[in-house]
Protein backbone atom coordinates (compact mmCIF):
# COMPACT_ATOMS: atom_id res chain seq x y z
CA UNK A 1 0.00 0.00 0.00
CA UNK A 2 1.18 3.51 -0.83
CA UNK A 3 -0.24 6.92 -0.05
CA UNK A 4 0.16 10.64 -0.61
CA UNK A 5 0.48 13.00 2.37
CA UNK A 6 -0.84 16.47 1.50
CA UNK A 7 0.75 19.46 3.25
CA UNK A 8 0.93 23.23 2.86
CA UNK A 9 3.87 25.07 4.43
CA UNK A 10 4.47 22.10 6.74
CA UNK A 11 0.84 21.84 7.91
CA UNK A 12 -0.72 18.41 7.43
CA UNK A 13 -3.93 18.64 5.34
CA UNK A 14 -4.72 14.97 4.75
CA UNK A 15 -3.60 11.50 3.72
CA UNK A 16 -4.82 9.74 0.58
CA UNK A 17 -4.36 5.99 0.05
CA UNK A 18 -3.50 4.85 -3.46
CA UNK A 19 -5.75 1.80 -3.48
CA UNK A 20 -7.01 1.87 -7.09
CA UNK A 21 -5.37 1.75 -10.49
CA UNK A 22 -5.22 5.55 -10.60
CA UNK A 23 -5.42 8.47 -8.18
CA UNK A 24 -6.22 11.88 -9.66
CA UNK A 25 -5.05 15.27 -8.40
CA UNK A 26 -6.65 18.60 -9.31
CA UNK A 27 -8.93 21.51 -8.48
CA UNK A 28 -12.20 19.90 -9.57
CA UNK A 29 -14.27 18.10 -6.89
CA UNK A 30 -14.25 14.93 -8.99
CA UNK A 31 -10.54 14.37 -8.22
CA UNK A 32 -9.40 11.89 -5.59
CA UNK A 33 -7.12 14.60 -4.17
CA UNK A 34 -8.93 17.92 -4.57
CA UNK A 35 -6.83 21.06 -4.11
CA UNK A 36 -9.09 24.09 -4.33
CA UNK A 37 -6.53 26.64 -5.49
CA UNK A 38 -6.36 28.63 -8.73
CA UNK A 39 -2.73 27.64 -9.24
CA UNK A 40 -3.88 24.02 -9.59
CA UNK A 41 -5.47 22.92 -12.87
CA UNK A 42 -8.89 21.27 -12.92
CA UNK A 43 -7.28 17.92 -13.82
CA UNK A 44 -3.66 18.53 -12.83
CA UNK A 45 -1.93 15.16 -12.46
CA UNK A 46 -2.52 11.46 -11.89
CA UNK A 47 -0.70 8.64 -10.11
CA UNK A 48 -1.07 5.39 -12.04
CA UNK A 49 -0.40 1.94 -10.59
CA UNK A 50 1.31 -0.58 -12.85
CA UNK A 51 2.06 -3.79 -10.99
CA UNK A 52 4.16 -2.80 -7.99
CA UNK A 53 5.23 0.51 -9.54
CA UNK A 54 3.67 3.95 -9.16
CA UNK A 55 3.97 6.54 -11.93
CA UNK A 56 3.19 10.24 -11.60
CA UNK A 57 1.96 11.86 -14.82
CA UNK A 58 1.32 15.55 -15.41
CA UNK A 59 -1.95 16.10 -17.34
CA UNK A 60 -0.74 19.13 -19.33
CA UNK A 61 -1.36 21.36 -16.33
CA UNK A 62 -0.95 25.12 -16.64
CA UNK A 63 1.68 25.52 -13.92
CA UNK A 64 3.32 22.11 -14.13
CA UNK A 65 4.05 19.30 -11.69
CA UNK A 66 7.36 19.09 -9.83
CA UNK A 67 9.32 16.37 -8.04
CA UNK A 68 11.83 17.68 -5.50
CA UNK A 69 11.85 21.01 -7.32
CA UNK A 70 12.25 19.63 -10.85
CA UNK A 71 9.46 19.71 -13.47
CA UNK A 72 8.27 16.29 -14.64
CA UNK A 73 5.89 14.93 -17.27
CA UNK A 74 6.07 11.29 -16.22
CA UNK A 75 8.02 9.99 -13.26
CA UNK A 76 8.51 6.63 -11.53
CA UNK A 77 7.80 7.41 -7.89
CA UNK A 78 10.00 6.16 -5.10
CA UNK A 79 9.45 6.31 -1.36
CA UNK A 80 10.01 9.83 -0.05
CA UNK A 81 9.49 11.73 -3.33
CA UNK A 82 8.04 15.21 -2.78
CA UNK A 83 5.44 16.18 -5.40
CA UNK A 84 4.79 19.91 -5.72
CA UNK A 85 1.50 21.18 -7.18
CA UNK A 86 1.26 24.95 -6.93
CA UNK A 87 2.15 25.82 -3.34
CA UNK A 88 1.05 22.41 -2.07
CA UNK A 89 3.24 19.39 -1.36
CA UNK A 90 2.36 15.71 -1.66
CA UNK A 91 4.79 13.30 0.00
CA UNK A 92 4.79 9.82 -1.57
CA UNK A 93 5.02 7.12 1.11
CA UNK A 94 5.49 3.51 -0.01
CA UNK A 95 4.79 1.26 2.96
CA UNK A 96 6.22 -1.77 1.14
CA UNK A 97 9.57 0.04 0.91
CA UNK A 98 9.39 0.77 4.63
CA UNK A 99 8.65 -2.88 5.38
CA UNK A 100 11.54 -4.04 3.20
CA UNK A 101 13.90 -1.68 4.95
CA UNK A 102 12.73 -2.85 8.36
CA UNK A 103 13.34 -6.49 7.42
CA UNK A 104 16.88 -5.62 6.32
CA UNK A 105 17.58 -3.90 9.64
CA UNK A 106 15.87 -6.32 12.00
CA UNK A 107 17.83 -5.30 15.09
CA UNK A 108 17.14 -1.64 14.36
CA UNK A 109 13.42 -1.75 13.55
CA UNK A 110 12.17 -0.37 16.86
CA UNK A 111 14.05 2.87 16.47
CA UNK A 112 14.32 3.81 12.76
CA UNK A 113 15.50 4.24 9.80
CA UNK A 114 14.20 4.01 6.25
CA UNK A 115 16.28 6.04 3.86
CA UNK A 116 14.86 6.97 0.45
CA UNK A 117 17.05 5.69 -2.38
CA UNK A 118 18.96 3.48 0.05
CA UNK A 119 16.62 0.50 0.50
CA UNK A 120 18.49 -1.55 -2.11
CA UNK A 121 21.81 -0.87 -0.42
CA UNK A 122 20.39 -2.02 2.92
CA UNK A 123 19.03 -5.27 1.53
CA UNK A 124 22.46 -6.15 0.15
CA UNK A 125 24.11 -6.09 3.58
CA UNK A 126 24.87 -9.44 5.31
CA UNK A 127 22.21 -10.48 7.82
CA UNK A 128 24.68 -10.44 10.69
CA UNK A 129 26.32 -7.13 9.74
CA UNK A 130 27.81 -5.51 12.87
CA UNK A 131 26.63 -2.02 11.94
CA UNK A 132 24.15 -0.16 9.80
CA UNK A 133 25.33 2.81 7.76
CA UNK A 134 23.40 4.91 5.23
CA UNK A 135 25.87 4.18 2.42
CA UNK A 136 28.07 1.12 3.14
CA UNK A 137 31.59 1.27 1.70
CA UNK A 138 32.48 -1.26 -1.03
CA UNK A 139 34.05 -3.81 1.30
CA UNK A 140 33.20 -7.47 2.08
CA UNK A 141 32.05 -6.50 5.58
CA UNK A 142 30.58 -3.13 6.68
CA UNK A 143 33.00 -1.14 8.80
CA UNK A 144 31.97 0.16 12.25
CA UNK A 145 29.87 3.32 12.13
CA UNK A 146 32.54 5.55 13.66
CA UNK A 147 34.84 4.71 10.77
CA UNK A 148 32.32 5.13 7.93
CA UNK A 149 30.40 8.16 9.17
CA UNK A 150 33.09 10.69 8.12
CA UNK A 151 33.03 9.24 4.59
CA UNK A 152 29.24 9.43 4.38
CA UNK A 153 29.24 13.04 5.61
CA UNK A 154 30.58 14.44 2.34
CA UNK A 155 27.54 15.61 0.36
CA UNK A 156 27.97 17.02 -3.13
CA UNK A 157 25.07 19.49 -2.89
CA UNK A 158 26.59 21.88 -0.35
CA UNK A 159 23.73 21.41 2.15
CA UNK A 160 24.42 20.88 5.85
CA UNK A 161 24.98 17.39 7.24
CA UNK A 162 23.29 16.18 10.39
CA UNK A 163 23.51 13.16 12.63
CA UNK A 164 21.12 11.18 14.81
CA UNK A 165 22.49 9.21 17.75
CA UNK A 166 20.21 6.69 19.48
CA UNK A 167 20.18 7.20 23.24
CA UNK A 168 17.84 4.45 24.48
CA UNK A 169 16.72 0.96 23.53
CA UNK A 170 18.65 -2.00 22.12
CA UNK A 171 20.33 0.18 19.50
CA UNK A 172 21.63 2.81 21.95
CA UNK A 173 24.87 4.29 20.70
CA UNK A 174 24.08 3.81 17.01
CA UNK A 175 24.73 6.88 14.87
CA UNK A 176 23.15 7.74 11.52
CA UNK A 177 24.18 10.39 9.02
CA UNK A 178 21.44 12.67 7.67
CA UNK A 179 22.78 13.50 4.21
CA UNK A 180 19.63 12.75 2.17
CA UNK A 181 16.87 15.23 1.33
CA UNK A 182 14.41 13.19 3.41
CA UNK A 183 14.85 10.64 6.18
CA UNK A 184 11.88 8.75 7.60
CA UNK A 185 12.07 7.80 11.28
CA UNK A 186 9.87 5.64 13.45
CA UNK A 187 7.85 2.47 13.28
CA UNK A 188 4.97 2.16 10.76
CA UNK A 189 1.64 1.77 12.49
CA UNK A 190 2.98 3.28 15.72
CA UNK A 191 4.61 6.64 15.04
CA UNK A 192 6.42 7.98 11.99
CA UNK A 193 8.10 11.33 11.29
CA UNK A 194 10.32 12.72 8.56
CA UNK A 195 13.43 14.87 8.88
CA UNK A 196 13.92 17.10 5.85
CA UNK A 197 17.31 18.55 4.95
CA UNK A 198 17.10 22.06 3.56
CA UNK A 199 19.50 24.96 2.97
CA UNK A 200 18.05 26.56 6.14
CA UNK A 201 18.78 23.47 8.24
CA UNK A 202 16.91 20.37 9.40
CA UNK A 203 13.17 20.15 10.10
CA UNK A 204 11.14 17.33 11.64
CA UNK A 205 7.48 16.81 10.64
CA UNK A 206 4.89 14.39 12.02
CA UNK A 207 3.62 11.87 9.45
CA UNK A 208 1.82 9.00 11.18
CA UNK A 209 0.53 8.10 14.62
CA UNK A 210 -1.91 9.51 17.17
CA UNK A 211 0.77 11.61 18.89
CA UNK A 212 3.31 14.04 17.47
CA UNK A 213 7.02 13.50 18.13
CA UNK A 214 8.48 15.23 21.18
CA UNK A 215 11.56 17.49 21.03
CA UNK A 216 13.17 18.51 24.33
CA UNK A 217 10.07 17.40 26.22
CA UNK A 218 7.52 19.33 24.13
CA UNK A 219 5.29 18.07 21.29
CA UNK A 220 6.23 19.54 17.90
CA UNK A 221 2.58 19.90 16.78
CA UNK A 222 1.51 19.68 13.14
CA UNK A 223 3.96 22.23 11.72
CA UNK A 224 7.48 21.46 10.54
CA UNK A 225 9.78 21.96 13.55
CA UNK A 226 13.32 23.31 13.14
CA UNK A 227 15.98 21.18 14.85
CA UNK A 228 18.90 22.68 16.76
CA UNK A 229 22.17 21.09 17.83
CA UNK A 230 21.75 18.53 20.62
CA UNK A 231 17.95 18.52 20.52
CA UNK A 232 16.58 15.31 22.07
CA UNK A 233 13.85 13.68 19.98
CA UNK A 234 11.40 11.12 21.40
CA UNK A 235 9.77 8.97 18.73
CA UNK A 236 8.10 5.54 18.89
CA UNK A 237 9.35 5.06 22.45
CA UNK A 238 12.98 5.82 21.62
CA UNK A 239 15.08 8.85 22.53
CA UNK A 240 17.70 10.13 20.11
CA UNK A 241 19.92 13.18 19.86
CA UNK A 242 20.26 15.41 16.80
CA UNK A 243 23.44 17.30 16.04
CA UNK A 244 25.11 18.77 12.98
CA UNK A 245 28.50 17.76 11.64
CA UNK A 246 31.37 19.37 13.47
CA UNK A 247 29.28 20.29 16.55
From TrEMBL:
Protein name listed in UniProt: Phosphoenolpyruvate synthase
Composition skew (Pro residues), residue ranges: 133-143
Keywords assigned: Pyruvate
Residues covered by the FHA domain: 23-72
Upper taxonomic lineage: Bacteria, Pseudomonadati, Pseudomonadota, Betaproteobacteria, Nitrosomonadales
Domain of life: Bacteria
Low complexity: compositionally biased ranges: 123-132
Pfam families given in the database record: FHA
Glycoprotein listed as a keyword: no
Region: Disordered, residue numbers: 123-159
Signal peptide: none
